[in-house]
Amino acid sequence: MPQELQGCDFCKFVNYEDSDDFYLYELGRNKCEPLYSYEHLVKNRVILHFVTGGKGILRLNNKEYSVHEHQAFLIPDNTRAFYQADRDDPWSYIWFHIGGPKIPLILREAGLTGEHPIYTPTSCADIIEGLAMDILDNYTRQYYCVGTLYKICDYMIENSSDKEEPDIENSLLYVKNVISYIQLKYSEPVKIETIAFSLGLNRSYLTRLFKNATGYSLQEYLLTYRMKMAVKLLANSSLSVAQIASNVGYTDTFTFSKAFKRFYGKSPSDYRNVKINVSTGTITGS
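Predicted structure:
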């Protein structure tokens, strides 16, 4: 049975992070009482609400927005937001906590940013909302949920009334190419100068462009991606730590282990042992 929590009709915490660029952490729906309100400040993820009925207001960055049925609104990461249902026609909505390096790019393509947090589709609102409900109905299926979120984003981009201007779209294309390059070459020595040269851009310009679009520096994204790949290998292979270090682009095992512990708070061996103990049901002291 769906989990019932006070203040909402349905809420699940799923923590789906297997996708390389699109993570789903929480999902739910709410048919609000008149003047029901909520305040949020979340870090390292964003919240996307799809309003399926009624209306309300969103306060974000000292601005107030009116939001109605068939619109969506964004709560960016590290941003305090307040939203409230209308007194006479309170809204119903579906929400998703999402994250990942491509999320800012995807949302910007649809015209959704902290400065423009309201999404109004030119058409297909019923399809978008139907897909969102489909995720709620199938929340236990990780790949189905993430795949359906990609569909939602595609519909949002194709039917946005506030698409990015062409020059901004070109900038986002550079950023997408950088992400693709890193995901392809992460197991090799990766130099920022090489990436910039391959795109015909100045290094400092590319660095600034990438940071503004994703919230990551180029080195932070490369490290994050390498650590994510290392975790997959630790959990799903019998490779030694030295072999895994080499597979994710480190020539020195000590440097890899130090970076891994700084990132996850555990050494690679300790992380693997915890995963094995959890999967076998064995509990060990520390």
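Summary: Residues 1-6, 278-286 have pLDDT under 50 and may be disordered.
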